[in-house]
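Homework help board

Subject: predicted structure for assignment chain

Our instructor gave us this sequence and asked us to write out the predicted structure in token form, then describe one feature. I got the tokens but I'm not sure how to describe them. Can anyone check?
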Amino acid sequence: MTQPIEKTTSKAQERVYEERAEEYDALIAAEDVDGEILRAIERHVAIDHKRIADIGAGTGRLSRLIGKRAAHIDLVDRAKPMLDVAAKRVAALGLRSHAIHVADARALPLTDQSVDAAMAGWVFGHFRHWMPEGWKLEVDTALSEMKRVVKKGGAILLIESLGTGYETPRDANPLDEYFAHLETAHGFTRAWFRTDYAFDSVEHAVHICEGFFGASLVEKIRANGWSRVPECTALFVLHL
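My token output:
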């Protein structure tokens, strides 16, 4: 019998997705000033004329990156307010074809082997924080769903942070155990690159970052005079 999906998420983080979608979109719009994410994706998966699933799509950040080049994009997220923003943003781009799905990553509303690739940006690491006792099962369930919907010969791509306010990947990352699980239990390979945030000024950086990253990052921004805030990011890739 299928077990019910747990809802034991961090309430504070959940409120961000339910109540602050536009603010969150302003934050992510400032990241990856040098365009490294798209280049990293392109090194591992063909985008042109492919059907792509964007799992935990949020406000459509990754979908907007691959934009008009994909044949079709399925945006999946359980937070409808985030998808409402995504719908506006992708409509403005005039994507060739896309569909919006309000659904959980652990129960995808897509048919078996229906997409050429599936990607999830800054999604499954939350399970490590939200469900400290059962996060491996939750990650494995989500990955099983991605494997189910991706065609043979396709790929799964996961993007996670290696440290905001760090110029190289941070030591003792709280997600290290999760990263190791991806690599040892599932066979993902990892590459890292910089995806710095660029703001108009130090005060603009403080204003946007404070509500999402807290006082410690704000102190670093002020101490270093950063209008460009360093960020390290990992791409985990699994070819099927």
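Reply (TA_rk): Your tokens look well-formed. For the description, you could write something like this. The chain has ten helices and nine strands. That's the kind of observation they're looking for.
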